[in-house]
Design a protein that fits this description.
Strand content: under 5%
Radius of gyration: 19 Å
Largest sheet: 2 strands, antiparallel
Number of strands: 2
Distance between the termini: 28 Å
Structural class: mainly alpha
Length: about 170
């Protein structure tokens, strides 16, 4: 990543990737309904803000949901402490894997694998390490965040399951 990225740059990136489709949908709906260009612009801005709020809301909800199993498991352990955003990040990554399973995810810029493969390895690793519990990493948050992301995207877009399977059928490793 570019360490010189400003908050304004980041907002522009998010607007293009996440909120942009909401803005386009609101603008298009207004124009199809015969609204004035001014109203279409206002609704487009509304869609942009709404899309950003949905992105942040999804992330925050994923943070909470991913940590619930750990809270339940560790509620009688007075010395257990955990802090992190990895559950929310896992939810975002796995939602995108369902939508684009063949897109590469790279580890340290060296090893790049299709998302569905790396995601599958990550789920297995998180499950096994979570069961062992030998380190101070909340592997359960990674696992449950990933599951939350998968479930959410399938509930919001059930057709994405079919697209996922179709893309996997077309996968050729070489």
């Amino acid at each position: 990543g570019n360490l010189a990225t400003t908050p304004e740059d980041y907002y522009e990136i998010i607007s293009g990737k996440t909120a942009g489709p909401f803005a386009a949908g609101c603008t298009a709906a207004a124009l199809v309904a015969g609204s004035s260009p001014e109203l279409a612009d206002i609704l487009g801005q509304f869609g942009l803000e709404l899309g950003g709020l949905i992105f942040v809301g999804f992330y925050l909800l994923a943070l909470v949901v991913a940590d619930i199993p750990t809270f339940v498991k560790q509620q009688n352990s007075p010395y257990y402490k955990a802090l992190g955003a990895s559950g929310g990040t896992s939810a975002m990554v796995f939602a995108s894997i369902i939508l684009m399973p063949l897109s590469d995810i790279c580890l340290f810029g060296l090893l790049c694998l299709p998302g569905f493969l790396l995601g599958g390895f990550f789920l297995i690793y998180s499950y096994v390490k979570g069961k062992k519990g030998q380190d101070n990493i909340n592997h359960d948050a990674h696992l449950y965040g990933a599951i939350f992301g998968i479930i959410c995207i399938l509930l919001l877009s059930p057709g994405s399951a079919i697209m996922f399977m179709e893309q996997l059928k077309s996968y050729r490793p070489f």
